[in-house]
């Protein structure tokens, strides 16, 4: 829970900072929100004894307390955003260590020094004057809510929140962690007594303590600081502590929650069960024993079962759908950091961030998007001087768009930079022995796709961001891993556009069952444009003897499925079979099959691991599903099938 909540807070914080940095100012609401976020992270980290995270968060909280209490006019918010982003990166790195069961052993002292230096700078004070600050003595009695539990840990959290601001301190009970049960019992009966000296004002001390969790009552008094110093190592006798317990407040009835957090493993299990129900439903309704029988009541019940199964599937899949917005928003940070490092002015424009996608897709999308954004900044966008010379605005633009098209999500990353030069790309590929075709044989789209080849790069020197020739190859592989494809278009001097097409979900798809010989195959409905039985006059051959079919004035290549998979078909005559026109990536082809069986929802099952050595994916097989009679149907990956045959 700590990891989840802290990660969410860091995302909120980053969004506020990037927006404020761009504006060069921070609204009162944003200042209060940052203060609240850092206060929450500080408190929860102190409770978990992650002291470095708590210390850094606490100091950022102090900085925003100063801003909130009237220091707005004296701070440079761009500098403040730099400092807080530095702290945010530190906290995020520590949280990642915790998530991986490692010790959060990072050293936050350098960040603390930076923050302290800036606080002293805006206050107009020298760091040496810190020793001459006026200290005040305080005695605090903290009473926690009755029945809250773990009173010793809550008292320890208060210590963590205020200790770094104190010169002297002692508390009762003196042992909070070693004798946890006894300390909790004593605190519940008598309250937690805290004696300390600090330079903080009364109001600030009160705010820090009352801001801790489950504090019901605070009695805070100013005392003689000399008395605190002299008794620092002596605890006040317990009989002097008032034992009157505060009157318990009646608890109000809790409102029912409308949102709950659910472990993704449970959602995966639910979707797996729904998939099995879909398979079982098909096995019942399509049972061979029912062929030729007139069972009216059974058919009515089967239709109702299918209706309920479809609703259950929609609900289960909807639970896994989350907005792509948070993933898109993270790209603002990439653009911001790179702009500073490479000295380019770039604006990121996001469109369609409310589009919802399966969580598994989202989890695999972050790295490819990061590579593409960095590539656009490093390779695509020109420097400010160059853009001004070309008559463009000094600030370049990168567009990140998402849209839903039926069963797929389309993501576009485009820029208004210099675009791709096909001749340069072809020459570079030829230098690295990546192609053997002549320039005239290579189309524009094929030339642009060369940047996706492993080892390809147009950079002469390796930099922090590019030049190794691995980035775009990794992007392609990661996108293909989630069943997607990537296409590239460009105009020299105007910019480049990359289009990613990804299925909304990876579990259940609508498929068309086709038959070739004695084998059944499933083609994703999203890849099918149309199907028909061709007439003889539309069947032609090109100059190389390859079969083509004329469709409304355009010729498309024919792929005979029985030849591709070495099967014995029912017929080899194109006019006696069925043509299924499919589209994969940027190409269209005509699949020749014996017959269409019908449309059906199918649960995608991965191929067994022992088949991986046969590299079936390269032959256009993307998975399998179970038919109603218990047999297996292979699911065709249309893009790979076309690439291999056309």
Describe this entry's structure for a reader.
- With 646 residues, this protein is an alpha+beta fold.
- The protein is flat.
- Strands 14-18-19-17-16-15 form a 6-stranded mixed β-sheet.
- A hairpin with a 5-residue loop joins β21 (621-626) and β22.
Summarize the entry for a quick read.
The chain is α+β, with helices and mostly antiparallel strands and 646 residues long.
Notable features of this structure?
alpha+beta; 646 residues; 5-stranded mixed beta sheet
Give me the secondary-structure topology.
Layout: H1 2-23, H2 28-47, H3 51-71, H4 77-99, H5 109-123, E1 136-144, H6 151-162, E2 166-172, H7 180-190, E3 192-198, H8 202-210, E4 215-223, H9 225-230, H10 264-285, H11 296-320, E5 321-323, H12 325-342, E6 346-351, E7 356-358, H13 359-363, H14 366-380, H15 384-389, E8 396-405, E9 408-415, H16 422-431, H17 444-448, H18 471-481, E10 485-491, E11 495-503, E12 508-516, E13 519-524, E14 528-532, E15 539-541, E16 547-551, E17 554-560, H19 561-564, E18 578-584, E19 587-593, E20 595-603, E21 621-626, E22 632-636, H20 638-645
Parallel strand pairs: 6-8, 13-22, 17-19
Antiparallel strand pairs: 1-3, 1-4, 2-3, 5-7, 8-9, 9-11, 10-11, 12-13, 12-20, 14-18, 15-16, 16-17, 18-19, 21-22
Helix pairs in contact: 1-2, 1-4, 1-12, 2-3, 2-6, 3-4, 3-5, 6-7, 10-11, 12-14, 14-18
């Amino acid at each position: 829970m700590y990891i989840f909540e802290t990660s969410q807070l860091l995302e909120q914080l980053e969004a506020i900072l990037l927006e404020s940095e761009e504006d060069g100012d921070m609204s009162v609401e944003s200042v209060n929100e940052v203060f609240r976020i850092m206060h929450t992270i500080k408190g929860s980290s102190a409770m978990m004894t992650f002291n470095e995270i708590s210390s850094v968060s606490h100091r950022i909280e102090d900085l925003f307390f100063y801003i909130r209490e009237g220091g707005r006019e004296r701070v440079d918010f761009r500098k403040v955003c730099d400092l807080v982003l530095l702290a945010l990166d530190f906290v995020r790195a520590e949280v990642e260590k915790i998530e991986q069961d490692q010790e959060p052993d990072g050293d936050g002292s350098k960040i603390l020094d930076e923050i302290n230096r800036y606080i002293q700078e805006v206050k107009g004070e020298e760091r040496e004057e810190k020793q001459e600050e006026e200290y005040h003595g305080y005695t605090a009695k903290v009473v926690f809510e009755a029945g809250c539990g773990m009173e010793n840990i809550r008292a320890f959290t208060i210590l963590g929140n205020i200790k770094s601001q104190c010169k002297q301190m002692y508390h009762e009970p003196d042992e909070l962690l070693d004798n946890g049960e006894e300390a909790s019992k004593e605190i519940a009966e008598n309250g937690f007594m805290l004696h300390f000296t600090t330079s903080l004002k009364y109001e600030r001390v009160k705010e820090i303590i009352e801001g801790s969790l489950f504090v019901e009552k605070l009695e805070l008094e100013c005392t003689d600081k000399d008395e605190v110093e002299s008794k620092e190592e002596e605890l006040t006798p317990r009989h002097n502590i008032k034992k009157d317990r505060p009157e318990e407040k009646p608890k109000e009835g809790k409102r029912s929650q409308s949102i709950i957090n659910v472990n993704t493993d449970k959602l995966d299990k639910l979707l797996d069960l729904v998939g099995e129900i879909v398979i079982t439903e098909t096995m019942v309704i399509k049972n061979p024993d029912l062929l030729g029988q007139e069972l009216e009541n059974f058919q009515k019940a089967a239709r109702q079962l299918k209706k309920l199964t479809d609703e259950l599937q929609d609900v289960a899949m909807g639970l896994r759908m989350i907005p792509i917005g948070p993933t898109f928003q993270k790209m603002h940070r990439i653009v911001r950091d790179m702009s500073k490092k490479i000295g380019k002015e770039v604006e990121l424009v996001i469109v369609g961030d409310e589009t919802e996608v399966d969580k598994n897709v989202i989890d695999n999308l972050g790295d490819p998007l990061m590579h593409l954004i960095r590539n656009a900044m490093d390779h695509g966008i020109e420097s400010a001087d160059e853009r001004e010379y070309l008559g463009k605005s000094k600030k370049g633009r990168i567009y990140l768009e998402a849209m839903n098209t039926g069963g797929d999500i389309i993501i576009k990353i485009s820029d208004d930079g210099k675009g791709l030069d096909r001749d340069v790309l072809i020459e570079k590929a030829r230098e690295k022995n990546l192609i053997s075709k002549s320039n005239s044989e290579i189309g524009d789209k094929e030339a642009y796709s060369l940047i996706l080849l492993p080892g390809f790069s147009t950079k002469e020197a390796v930099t922090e961001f590019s030049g190794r020739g691995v980035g775009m190859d990794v992007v392609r592989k990661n996108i293909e891993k989630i069943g997607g494809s990537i296409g590239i278009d460009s105009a020299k001097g105007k910019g480049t556009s990359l289009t990613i097409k990804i299925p909304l979900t990876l579990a259940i798809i609508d498929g068309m069952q086709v038959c070739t010989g004695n084998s059944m195959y499933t083609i994703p409905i999203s890849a099918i444009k149309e199907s028909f039985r061709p007439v003889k006059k539309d069947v032609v051959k090109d100059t190389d003897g390859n079969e083509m079919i004329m469709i409304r004035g355009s010729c498309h290549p024919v792929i005979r499925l029985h030849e591709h998979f070495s099967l014995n078909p029912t017929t080899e005559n194109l006019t006696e079979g069925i043509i299924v026109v499919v589209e994969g990536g940027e190409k269209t082809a005509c699949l020749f099959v014996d017959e269409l069986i019908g449309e059906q929802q199918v649960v995608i099952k991965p191929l067994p691991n022992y088949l991986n050595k046969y590299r079936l994916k390269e032959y256009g097989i993307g998975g399998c599903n179970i038919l109603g009679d218990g047999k297996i149907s292979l699911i065709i990956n249309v893009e790979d099938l076309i690439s291999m045959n056309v």
